[in-house]
What we know:
Blueprint: E1 12-16, H1 17-30, H2 46-54, E2 59-62, H3 65-73, E3 79-82, H4 90-93, E4 101-105, H5 108-117, E5 121-125, H6 140-149, E6 153-158, H7 170-191, E7 195-198, E8 212-213, H8 223-226, E9 236-245, E10 250-252, E11 267-268, E12 273-277, E13 282-285, E14 295-299, H9 303-308, E15 312-317, E16 320-326
Parallel strand pairs: 1-15, 2-3, 3-4, 4-5, 5-6, 6-7, 7-8
Antiparallel strand pairs: 1-9, 9-10, 9-14, 10-13, 11-14, 12-13, 15-16
This protein binds pyridoxal-5'-phosphate.
The site of pyridoxal-5'-phosphate (PLP) has 14 residues, from loops.
Amino acid sequence: MAGTVHDLTTPALIVDAEALQRNLAEMARALPGARLRPHVKAHKCTALAKRQLEAGHRSFTCATVREMEGMAAAGLGEDLLLANEVLDGSRLAALGDLARVTVAVDSPETIEAAAASGIREVVIDVNVGMPRCGCSPDDAGRLADLARSRGLEVRGVMGYEGHVVGLPDRGAREQMTEDAMKLLLRAHADVGGDLVSAGGTGTFDINTWATEIQAGSYALMDTAYGELGLPFRQAVFVLAAVIHVSPTHAVANAGLKAFGMDHGNPAMEGGHQVFIVSDEHVTFVPSGSVKVGDLVRFVPAHVDPTVAYHERMHLVDGEDVIDTWPVDLRGW
Ligand SMILES: Cc1ncc(COP(=O)(O)O)c(C=O)c1O
């Protein structure tokens, strides 16, 4: 779609093309090639993943079966890691030659499910401190043996230090990443294999223990990561139109259905202060004069769930819309 931002239906997800390109280049410089396994959960967009491929990364991390399928169909299936447990891998096995599929397993049940589905390769998912999936480091070797006995190739371990990536204090991030990775390396010693997969945007330059880093948010960024002093710029915004102005406040036509809110309210550019976010509206206190019809830009507090609300993202250069990419990896 050509034209300008004034032609877009609001709310609209817009991406500053230059900031995106800089973020991709900055990361590719820090973690070239296979040192980064970009996580596509943050952008859910194969067109953006192709830019990451152009930046030199050929292996990708996914969170859902749908992401795996979409990446394979887009010709991006050279080495896909589903960094998540699945109980039915039949859709993954059905990808056949379209993709090299590796799945995270952390229990006899998930190993059995992988083997029964015809999946060939797994990593042992280890809990390194975040209360989510992942086995105890002490169980990793036993699970690897079980997986091998079921005919699965065990490529190594993964252990996402999700309890660390967002900590504001860099010293704490460094210490806790080291603690987490000691657990992962202990598990790896029992498991074997080439892969030690971990890390995120907040630890991309701290986690030197993993063989590959699974960062995803770095491409688009959000207010939470924006506070950490990382070398990545805010690239994604939600564009909305002012639909009401009163003496005390103004209202824009984007609301809870346009923003992931688990990290709190979005921020606004131009010094406006977000007051209330409701289903279809943001009520805000303007920093100066605004009028009905003005466009305003919001910075999402959490990029992943925000992007998942939108069907497409528009690449912009200033006010010009230079491309429109489907957010084509949504759903399950
Ligand atoms: C398994 C896994 N790896 C890596 C990441 C890194 O993502 P981010 O770039 O947002 O830190 C996430 C994010 O939630 C994740 O769930």
